[in-house]
Model the fold of this input.
Amino acid sequence: MEKRIQIICGDITRQTADAIVNAANCSLLGGGGVDGAIHRAAGPELLAECRTLHGCETGKAKITKGYRLPAKYVIHTPGPIWRGGNAGEEALLASCYRSCLELASQYGCETVDFPSISTGVYRFPLDRAARIALETMADYLAGHPEIRRVRMVCFDARTESAYRAALERLENRL
Ligand code: AR6
Done:
């Protein structure tokens, strides 16, 4: 049977999934990194729809159409900025993954692709972020058979190996 949590290396804007996730900021009006790449690939209609959403709190999520992307939807979530670990960063990062999956369920998405939220400009330590991401996904999927497959789309080899190691540790525990 195909595994429900998968890790791949690639560009999330090229992936075919019912929804891709955007590591956004609270304005939802675009930025650098994966956010910039998603807006460039989706076209200006994405920004126009984002303007109607009036931002989003850290740890929450909002959904738009995918426009010129292969994905039907984009789920936008502002991750926490790493401030040393005592500002609720871990709980907020878990909340990002959970909120995105809840929206995916509500919109009938069976396949969802995530980037590594907060581990770029927001400087969340990669190993910790990988553990939190995969644990939160596994917890959610256990109670939600409607989501068939979730992938982590890693943009570089260092990110990919951190998520592979974290997935191995999780599978040994389960
Ligand atoms: N596909 C997949 N992953 C990517 C891509 C791509 N095309 N491009 C970059 N990444 P970041 P954050 C990876 O900085 O830390 C933006 O300006 C990247 O290598 O994009 O959550 C927003 O507007 C890294 O592993 O997001 C916010 O202001 C991961 O995506 C802020 O950055 C996340 O890096 C959010 O910071």
